[in-house]
Amino acid sequence: MFAFIFNRLLPLFLFIVSFYTHLFSQNNDYLPYLTSKDSIDKVYGMDPTLYNGILYQSKYPETVKGDQYFSSPEYLNGEVLIRGVIFKNIKLNYDVYKQEVLLKYTNLSNGINIISISKAWLESFTIGDDRFTLYGTAEIPKRIYQVFGNDSILLLYFWRKDLIIDNTEGVLAFIKKRESFVLMNNSLNKFKNNRSFLHLFPLDKQIQIKKYLRQHKIKVNKASNKTMEELIIFCSK
Length: 237
Hints:
- By secondary structure, the protein is α+β, with helices and mostly antiparallel strands.
- It has helices spanning 2-25, 31-35, 39-43, 194-198, 203-215, 225-235, and strands at 53-55, 76-82, 85-95, 100-106, 112-117, 122-127, 130-135, 143-148, 153-166, 171-184, 187-191.
- Helices cover 27% and strands 36% of the residues.
- Strands 1-5-4-3-2-6-7-8-9-10-11 form an 11-stranded antiparallel sheet.
- The radius of gyration is 28 Å and the shape is globular.
């Protein structure tokens, strides 16, 4: 009985295999959509150089004071530089707590996605008026810095947020902290106050900078971004 059923079904099975083999061999034009490394999204116009990251998920108790973002939860217009390619007019944010650059966009189904942009090839980015760069040394791994200046000497701020217990209210709170550096001659040097800032420069330059600090009544650990940008530009002259 089994042999009889097998003999009757075998021709049908061979016909189905032959049909689909013929079908795909005659439609090779469709195969790149399935096998190309560019992915389906790129076929429809979404460049994987940019849209290459994991979905962002971040949940904290409602009682937490503050947030994890650089300035606010709002996504602002910005641009990123990835592998030498600039992507403009995109919605970005910066999760300082997790050190992740976030991209908000409308997906192919008209839904809203937020992804953490891969930092493997990310070189720099801007969010609103704030500029950031990724930089590392042999001593310090590559990480995100806010950057000021456009010349041979740059001011870099490394920001982080700690999630700690606020003793005054007994709840968790995000606390923002900053480390300050000068990038000069491919050397990243940390400073904390006017004195340590001055010592980063040659003796002849220190005199000019010290005079500038006094004239403008600048305390580098408290000065505004605008003031520090003007200072580092002066130091670059």
